[in-house]
Write a structure and sequence with these properties.
By secondary structure, the protein is mostly helical. Helix content is about 70%, strand content about 0%. The protein has five helices and no strands. Helix 1 packs antiparallel against helix 2 and helix 2 packs antiparallel against helix 3.
Length: about 150
């Protein structure tokens, strides 16, 4: 009787861990897609802002739509960096227009690093969502993932 109960419990725990891992993998993929779409929308708006003074309403609306989607699922650091990008784009519309040659030179000489902090915030968030290796860490079979740059205590 005890052996059968333990077998059922072990099977249930294994199924629970597998389900949680699958959910986390899907969540990471969804967020990767969302963040890629935001970067694409922001890059289009930024390119437009370098050449024009008037924002393209459809592009700006798309960018704000991506921000709205991120507000539903993203961590505060990711939202903070995304918001910083949006404000930088809006500020760029107010700057003097650049010629296509000036834009090429501007981008070629790393004069702008629009997405670095956003990428770091996204990476940190996504690493925290990764399913973890099964170990003797406890009944949930998951343990906290160290932040990038921190050492794991193995």
């Amino acid at each position: 009787m005890i052996g059968g109960g333990l077998s059922v419990l072990a099977s249930w725990l294994a199924q629970r861990v597998q389900s949680k891992s699958q959910w986390l993998i899907q969540e990471v993929r969804r967020r990767q897609d969302l963040y890629s779409e935001f970067v694409e929308a922001a890059a289009c708006c930024f390119g437009d802002a370098l050449l024009e003074n008037e924002p393209d309403t459809a592009r700006i609306a798309n960018l704000y739509g991506e921000m709205g989607r991120m507000r539903l699922v993203s961590s505060e650091p990711v939202l903070k960096e995304a918001n910083r990008i949006v404000h930088r784009i809006l500020d760029t519309y107010n700057d003097a227009n650049r010629s296509k040659t000036e834009v090429r030179d501007f981008l070629a000489h790393d004069s702008v690093d629009l997405f670095s902090d956003f990428g770091n915030a996204c990476r940190t968030e996504l690493i925290g969502l990764q399913p973890l290796r099964i170990g003797i860490e406890g009944p949930s079979m998951f343990r906290i993932t160290p932040l990038p740059g921190e050492r794991a205590s193995d």
